[in-house]
Fold these 2 entries.
Entry 1:
Amino acid sequence: MMKKRIKLLVLALSFAGAIPLSFGQQTETAIDDFRPSSLNQPGKEFPQVNSQGYARFKIEAPAADSVRVSLGLGGRGGTKLTKADDGTWMGTTEGPMDEGFHYYHVNVDGGIFNDPGALNFYGSVRWESGIEIPAHDQEFYALKDVPHGHVQQILFPSKSTDTSRRAFVYTPPGYEQNQAEKYPVLYLQHGWGEDETAWTNQGHANLIMDNLIAEGKSKPFIIVMTYGMTNEIKFGGLRNFDITPFQTVMVDELIPYVDKNFRTLADASHRAMGGLSMGGMETKQITLNKPDTFSYYALLSGGTYAPDDIKDKSDVNLIFISCGSKENPERVNEATEALKKAGLNAVSYISEGTAHEFQTWRRSLHQLAPLLFKN
């Protein structure tokens, strides 16, 4: 019984975006071709990564007695660093990490700090250090010489929360020039511990779209990213999350503001909602509660739909469900097959070799975007 409870707790935390389910595979020896991570502060040599996916860290803490690097959203795992005579501490992960982006922080004598050598990204309900393990398929989110869209911050009024709230809006290349054209909209949500900066900073959503549009693989559309009000619940407290306040912000306040201030096709057939991890949970609840608001649904490591969830098939143009191969791919594939048998347009995608992490979600968006707004 105790083992069953522990397993359920781990699955719940993973679903919330709190921890990855895996951390690479241990190998014998790391190849000594380390180079600075692409997410380092300007001029900083460490942290470093090598061609196998190992990470190496170096921290200056001459007065410390113990230094450890904790990797993953929530600080899972740990790499002990060894002190040198000059007061610096250095260590290498015991095995390679999955491709893509990872959060981490440094534990110095029990205190949590960010690595001065790395850029910071909002995750784990705080600004965390970030490291990028080069991926074999990183070209799809690379910065290329193609027309680029714009990402702008907006502040929209929210009577329900008695404040102005923030969102980021991606408008595709040509939006400013094509004044007569109106665009579909994807409302894209982050996971627990993150905020509205995640999809562009960690996920490179804007670059993914720029490249797809330049290649003629996706219709141009607007993406809106706002804070999902997820971090008000405590770590692991999914059962206590009430979707109602955020649903009001999304449906009654943000969408009308976007439709008024941007050139949108303001109807359900041109509106999508998707989210990663806990953002997927929000997506599922809101799309089922408000079937007249969205017609494209996307859950990225964020659960599944069952055929009985959909009351009217005519409301739904697409259901997209994805996860990493190190998560629960069988569940995703089985759910998708059941939806197809029920007559729904359902698509599944499994990111090979990744877990509950941003490489899974980058790849998922890359697969999802070409499927949106085709009808």
Entry 2:
Amino acid sequence: MAKESRDVDFTAYVGSRAAWLRNVAYLLCADWHRADDLVQESITKLYTNWSRAARAENLDGYARTVLVNTFLAEQRTSWWRRTRTGFEAADGVATGADLDAALDLRQALAALPPRQRATVVLRYFCDLSVEQTAEAMGCSSGNVKSQSSRALDALRGSAALRAGRAGG
């Protein structure tokens, strides 16, 4: 009976948060297919540790940490470097938004090193504090601040470069 209840709770959680996890994963890796793989691997890890995860004070934070750690661990493998295909455009079309600007931002985000990208996604997409981001990434607050600063400088530089090409 306990296993059935556990599975029902897990299934309900994943069913309600899968789309959100997929969006976070996409922002990390800039590839919808790879995002699906990251989410699947993270969900598997979450399931194997569900008894601990279900007791977490912030289950979304726990799941997000698993996802980010899975992404960062993947970046360190030689398999990923050999099979990386580069930036792919998003599935579907954005409505009511500046599609060119969104694609430019996605390309600039995809060009960031993995830890900087993870920091930007956690801080500005997931709206975490410096301390929460540091906890999720397993690093110091100072590291989060420096990674954020470098990433934002790179994003600003990319935006200025694109604006210079468009205007000149």
